[in-house]
Amino acid sequence: MTNNANSLLLEKIAAQIQQALVLAGQGDLTGSEALYLEVLEQQAEHPLALYGLAQLAGAIDDLEVKEALLSQAIEQLVDITSPEQKSLAAVWLTELAEVLFKLNRPTDAMHCLRQCESLIAENLKVPLAS
């Protein structure tokens, strides 16, 4: 794909994600879901689309699906290098920890929080306390 075509695709995806957020905010979860799924058809495993679907699952109290989608979204940020991506992953890990606590999985939740702490320390370049 040429740089121009790739740039156009990224712009289209950004617009679709923005529209999905608007629809979700208006209560149109079905329309929002359709847009997120369309993004995933164009770019499989897109972290923001996965995260958006996780939010929709949370809106209907389907915590197992929310957990799976959040985990997938976080996995897409595994090789993160930018401070912005690390911050995003930290926020998502915190949200995943909350879901895991609600699912009565405190050990898994604590693991997420430790990962979050590590990412924040990397961003701040601060050594972790033992």
Description:
Helices cover 78% and strands 0% of the residues. The chain has 2 domains: 1-76, Tetratricopeptide repeat domain (Serine Threonine Protein Phosphatase 5, Tetratricopeptide repeat, Alpha Horseshoe); 79-130. The protein is mainly α and 130 residues long. The N and C termini lie far apart (47 Å). It has 6 helices and no strands.
Quickly list its features.
about 130 residues, mainly alpha, Serine Threonine Protein Phosphatase 5, Tetratricopeptide repeat, 2 domains, 6 helices, about 80% helix, about 0% strand
The gross shape turns out to be flat
Number of strands: 0
Q: Fraction of residues in helices? A: over 70%
Kindly estimate the percentage of residues that lie in beta strands according to DSSP. Answer: under 5%
Number of helical segments with 4 or more residues: 6
Q: Name the CATH superfamily assignment of the largest domain.
A: Tetratricopeptide repeat domain
CATH architecture of the largest domain: Alpha Horseshoe
Q: List low-confidence stretches.
A: none
CATH topology assignment of the largest domain: Serine Threonine Protein Phosphatase 5, Tetratricopeptide repeat
Reading the helices and strands in chain order gives HHHHHH
Q: Over the alpha carbons, how many angstroms does the gyration radius reach?
A: 16 Å
Gap from first CA to last CA:
47 Å
Q: Can you tell me the number of structural domains?
A: 2
The CATH class of the largest domain is: Mainly Alpha
Quaternary class: single chain
